[in-house]
Each structure stands twice: as C-alpha cells, then as structure tokens.
Amino acid sequence: MRFQLLGPVEVRDDANRVVELSACKMRTVLAVLLLARNRVVSDGHIAEMLWGDQPPATAAAQIQTYVSRLRQRLGPGVPISRQLPGYLLQIEPGRLDLAEFERLAARGREEAESGRWTEAAASLREALARWRMPCLTGVTEPLSAARRPALEEARMSVLEDRIEADLALGRPAELVPELAGLVTAHPLRERLRGQLMQALAGSGRQADALASYQSYRHLLAEELGIGPGPELRDLHQHILLAHPVPETPAEAQPRLGAWLPPDLADFTGRETELGRILDLLRPADTQLGRRVGCVVAGMAGVGKSALAMHAAHRLREEYPDGQVYVEAGERSSFELLGDLLAALEGGVSGVPDGLDERVRRYRAVLVDRRVLVVLDNVADEQQIRPLLPDTPRCGALVTSRTRLAAIEGVPVVDLGVLDTEPAVRFLEKVIGAARVEAEAGVARDIVRYCGGLPLAVRIAGGRLVAKPHWRLAVLAERLRLPDRRLDELRQADLEVRGAIERTLLGVDEESRSAFRVLGGIDAPGFSVDTAASALGVPVASAHDLVENLLDARLLEVNCSPDGQAVRYHFHELVRVVARDAIPLIPAARVATG
User: Fold this and answer.
1) If both were cysteines, with which of 53, 285, 295, 472 could 398 make a disulfide (CB 3.0 to 4.6 Å apart)?
2) In terms of domains, do 346 and 477 share one?
C-alpha cells in the first residue's frame, strides 16, 4: 500500500486502487499517525487534532473505534499497535509520499551544493511532482491548521531551490513568467523576489528588476516597517551598478555563530547517549523523512544541560548557519520566540508583536538555513511546539525533566545517574587524579553517597577543590549520614536540595502530598498496592499519583523481565527531600513491603 498526504489524504493498494476511507475523522487519525513517522502518538494529541481544545468525554472510546476501522480497511500488512500513551503506525518511508518528497528534495539539494545543477533541477522537479495541491485535504480543521502551513512552506522552499537550479543553468527568460506569478501570489517571500530580479536582469531587463526591488521595499515598509535583507540589497547594488548578476546562488546565508553556553572542560562519560544524540541531529538523517531533533530527559541534576551543550558544540560543523540557545523555564512561547528571532536576525527591532506573526517569521527565517536550536529546561510540549523547526535542514535539541512524549517525531534520550566508574572519573576531572588515586576507595564512597547524580558529584568535587587541605575521607564522613547529606551537597549557587524542590513545585498539590507520604515508606521499593495503603486512597488513584511523580522524575521504576511486577523507588537523595517534608503534613498511614 501507498499513503498520500500531499493532496487528498488517501491510501492506494498495490493495484493503485483507492482504499475507501469515508469518514473525515478516520482520515484524520490516519494522517496524524503517518505524520508521526513510526513514532507513538498520544491519545491526547490525536484528540486535539480531532476535536481541538474541547474533546468529548467519550474521546478515548471514539479514537479506539476509528483505529479499529482503520485496521479493518488497511489489513494486517499495515500494523497499528496500541503502545501507551497512544498508538503506533509503522510503514516503510518509501510508501509515504511526504517521505519520498523529502528524500528527493534532500538529494536535489546535495546535488546543488556540489554544483551538479542539471541533476539537482531534475531531482527537485521529481520531488515537487509528489504534490497534488492542497495537502491534507479531507481532514479536520485542527489538523489542517496545525500541519498544513509547515508542509506548504516546505514545498515552497523546494520550489525556490528548483528555480535556483534553473537560474544556474542559464534559463532566466524562461523563468520570468513563472516567477512573476509566484511573486504576485507570495509578495513577501524575499527569496522569490530576488530570483525574479535575477531572471529579469539576466534577460536584459535591468530596469524591470530595479522596479521590482523598489516595489518590494515599499511593501515591506508599509506592511512590516522593515527593509529588505542584506542578500537582496547586495543583488540590487549589482544590478544598479551594472555589475553581472551572479550566475549561481549564494553559497550560504551569513553565519550566525554559536550562541551557546560554553562546553564543560571536565565533561565525562555519556558516550552512548552522546553518540545517539549526534546521530539523531545530523542533517543527513533527513533522507529518512523525519524531523531532526531529540529530547534529552532526566531527573534534576542528572546532567541534561551539560550533555546537550557538549553535543551542540560537537555539531557546529553540521549546522554552518549557526546555533542558538534559549533557557525555557516557565517562560511563554511568545517570549522565547522573541529571543530566538533577536538572535537569528541580529537584534530585537522588527520582532513582530503577535504570537502567530512571530511563528511565521521564525519559520521563514529558518527555511533556507541550517541552524541548531537548543531549548533548555523545557516545561511541557505546549511551550515549545511553535519553536520546533519545520524544515529538515534545521535541528532542535531539547532538554526537559519530563519525556515530552506528545511531540511526534522527536525521539527521547533518557539519562540515568552515572555508574560508579564514570562518576569516579568525573570526580577525578574536578579535583585531580592524584587525590583520587591516593584515596581510591574513599572516592568510590563519595560518589556512592552522591547516588551517582552528576550535580551532587560536581558539588562534592567543588567542596574538595575549595578545601585542598581536606582528605577525601573528611568529606566522605560528612556525607555518610543521610540526614545531613543534602546540607553538605551545597556550594555557592549549586544545591541538590533546591534542584529537587524546584521539580516538586511543578506537580499539583495532591502529588506533592503523596510525595511526602511515600517518602516515609521504609522499604527499598514499593508496589501500587503499598502506595494505596500508605496514602489511604483506592489503588487506581494511587496509580495515578505515583505515575505523576514518575513523569516528574521524582520517582523511579523497576519492572520484572516479564513486565508483570512493577515497583517504584526513590533516588536516595530525593528520598531525603521527601522525608524532610513529612512533618509538614498530617500523619499518614505508612505501610512497608
């Protein structure tokens, strides 16, 4: 079977017959699953794309019905599996017209970069032939509004690439009618305007090229209060001074540079996770037709930001047009877009006042660039959806304490605590090899007291650097007692307790109360039944509460090999925070086992 999104949403069998999908909502569910590119799509996201902000109470049951009908229509050769928190549709990329479009477009761009203009023009034409405008026809309005603009923007970018190839092949006069129509339809697309100017000037119509520039300059001034960009101004000067118009497009837009925090000189370990991130964020992977990005997730203090910065610095050559960084925290998408546009465009002047306008400008700025966007300490999916680049030439590297599983097409790299040997190597980089070698066993005790948490190990190392007269055994003794451990793991503006408590503030009050009670369970791990007994609530309610804490990385989980037995436990430093808070709430029934 072949699946089509770049026009009416359709499925065709091996004989090229259309598979009947009569219901709009069934087509919508199929399109949402296809757009996820072999990734799980949550029930919540499917519901949002079906009904918008107000799904019915029966949403889950209706989604199940639509999926069941799709399974019947598509047959066993197209598996749709239930995988929490949603559904997964797995197909080969070559069976999806969007993936083929992106593969051919990537090939054409590579051919253009190596100067093979004839091959590039042919590949880009073949990519555009996959379109049967308009895309995503026959789906719900929420899905169309959410995804159609980005898809159409991708098509326009490839169309402009194809025109660049034709210009480089010396066909300016043939392109003038097409470009005139495109500029009329898209008057604010600067690249199209420049291509029209090149085609006019290359056809001996310099006056018309200059007039087109002046018309565009006035339009920008009236509509947006800004002027043309530097590339178009340079082209205007070439034509004005009767210099030859460049026969090939500019090699690249001006480099932004790396707007990143510095890499850590003592970064240690994480070789497997680092390799995974580098693989996910290399633009060459766009041939597979997926969004270029990943989420680095883990508990407070586990080293998410440090790993992200280390990876971003390693990727500088992969993104020649620069790297930008924003600290997300609790800030709104509107604020973050303002910072990103200021970094990308070299200042805050001209940044639009409305959210939608900022999103459009942001996507337009990125469409022809290769930029890595680093979004640090993200709170939730809604905060960063508008910030994720929609062009496969750009990448997004996100860090968050939650997995952000509702962002389709963006894999998650989970970080756990460091094993003993990498943690000791990290301590050695902070304090020096000689001190660790002199008390190797004590060094292992210190990282064990730190629970392998990189933030805790860094603070412990910092205290030893500040106290060069201390033997490692002095600090180990101070860390030995759990009740005073968090008081010792504090230095300057670094504090383990504060990092954990800030995470706790991000969950609801009922979950915070459960956190405090569960911290009093005197056992290395506990089941949902035990949690229900301690909390005095039904098992179903206890399950929701422990899963909320697990999502916030305030709890951890172990499963038996067969997946039947699930036990929850606290990281030892998180448990200390929970137990310290127990006197703040009424006494609760605490069970063991």
Assistant:
1) 295
2) no
Does the pTM surpass 0.70? The reply is no
Q: Within the chain, which residues score under 70 in pLDDT? A: 241-259, 283-290, 346-350, 493, 563, 581-593
| 539 shares its domain with 520 | yes
How far apart are the C-alpha atoms of 182 and 193, rounded to whole Å?
9
* CA separation, residue 166 to residues 171, 235, 236, 484, 508 (Å): 6, 18, 20, 71, 58
For 515, the token pair is 């956190």
pLDDT of residue 82: 93
409 and 360 together in one domain = yes
359: domain range? 258-414
Q: Among 196, 224, 246, give the residue marking a domain's end.
A: 246
CATH of the domain at 568: 1.10.10.10
42: which strand partners? 86
pLDDT tens, residue by residue, 112-151: 998 899 999 999 999 999 998 789 988 999 999 999 999 9
Same domain? 279 vs 235: no
Contacts of 107-112 with C-beta under 8 Å, sequence gap 24+, read 107/287, 108/158, 108/161, 108/162, 108/165, 109/161, 109/393, 112/161, 112/164, 112/165, 112/168
How far is it, in rounded angstroms, from Cα 308 to Cα 8? 40
